[in-house]
User: What shape does this take?
Amino acid sequence: MSDDLVRIMSPHLDVVRVERVWSTDGVVRIAARTRELTMACPDCGHGSARAHSRYSRTLADVAAGGRAVLITLGVRRLFCDSPSCGRRTFAEQVEGLTVRYQRRSTLLQHLVEMAGVLLAGRGGSRLLHILKAPLSRTSVLLQLMRMRLPSIATPRVLGVDDFALYANVYGTLLVDADTRLPIELWAGRDAEQLAAWLRTHPGVEVVCRDGSLVYRQGITDGAPEAVQVSDRFHLWQGLSKRVSDIAAAHRACLSAAVPESDSEPAAPPPAELSETVDSPARRHAKRLFEAVHSVSDSGRSLSAIARELGLNRRTVAKYARATSWQDCVRRAPPRRSTSLDPYLEYLRQRWEEGEHTATVLHQEIVAKGYAGHYQRVKMAIAPLRRGLPISTPRERPPSPRQVARWITTTPSRRGLDATEALRRLLEHCPELDRTHDLVRQFASMLDARDAAPLPDWLDHLAASHLPALDGLAKAIREDRQAVVQGITTPFNSGVNEGRITDLKLQKRIMAGRAGVPLLRHRVILMAGLRRNHP
Assistant: This one.
């Protein structure tokens, strides 16, 4: 054991002399003292070997052999004999072993700091207990916050993006796109704060951002000479959101994507009521539809209409988008196919033959390969007991989000089923067909990095008579220069999104309880650690 411990001290044996090694209470103790060497004054650098006094320091070191290590080190206090130095005495330090005012060795201090960076307070404390260096979680966080952040060099290409701290509270993250490292983080999405940072760090040439008006204004005020790039990912994301809104407004057309043989079964069960049958839900939908449309033609905002009618804004938006009140009636979704479907015809045949016991029917189809539960068989034959036919599975109409995914996906990457369903839908709905053509035109601009067709494309958006696309055209025209840069240049916010993903991971590790200063320390130090030790 003593050989191992002397080996721990070996980098410092030219300065430190080990006098004794022993073990008590599961702790290995090392007694050592510094050699009589000349040391430099920390202020003036003048060498001195004249001792003023000697005292002992106790240092905790990394564990050896599964035991904690304590080093009792005798050090000297030396006189500084330089007449020009204001310091009269100073304590000698052993480089790589001691640090001023520190009761841990340099190696153990580095271990504590890395535990805080990688695992935060609670996780770092648990790891240090395993490594025989017990420390509370608050002490780990304190050591982490004492670490100095790397100096900020003004980046040539800056990435700006926001992230959610919690609920509706957001923060801003700045990333050096060249080094791919985060350089600053703060709470809020304030244009003046971003402008102030850019003024104190002049020299930024390119700024990649999303379509935020706040960041656009902050960059314009703080670095007016910088080229602003509206990220293509956010452009495509905004277009996809508009496509989803259009699909939701034409929800009544989405059933056309389902083949007629599946969407219209030969013998629908009588339990399904006709469209003409009155019900409280249908009367309520008709009343809300008429109330919303009687006010929506006045040109007021959805929020104002919601306040006047005492409704939720989302409810008002749903009824305002609908073309008829029938579109707002909630319908029961078609039954999905199950593992019992191949045996439904057999069950119907056996029922007609006189076998009405669910247990016997279940045993018969189990012998034929059915692996499901008896209860499913019992529920399947329940309509037969009431004189009704067994319900057959039907394919569900696609959701607006699914239709938007079909439209925005490259045709070569769509499945055969999706391609055929989209073809039927576009043949039935000219508005979605027009939207599909406009989306593919914008996709070709992004693929070719050619913004020449952009003005004509914006005119087509405005002439489409689709409110969602008309609003998108206005937003792009206001930010046209940045959009052109996003289409034609290789700059993008991909690095920002990757760093925000890392940031969210650190938040989850700390259970979302970290304040902005601690989160800032961990994110910046973690990124630098990953770069130095991939």
Observations:
- Residues 106-130 form the longest helix (25 residues).
- The mean pLDDT is 86.
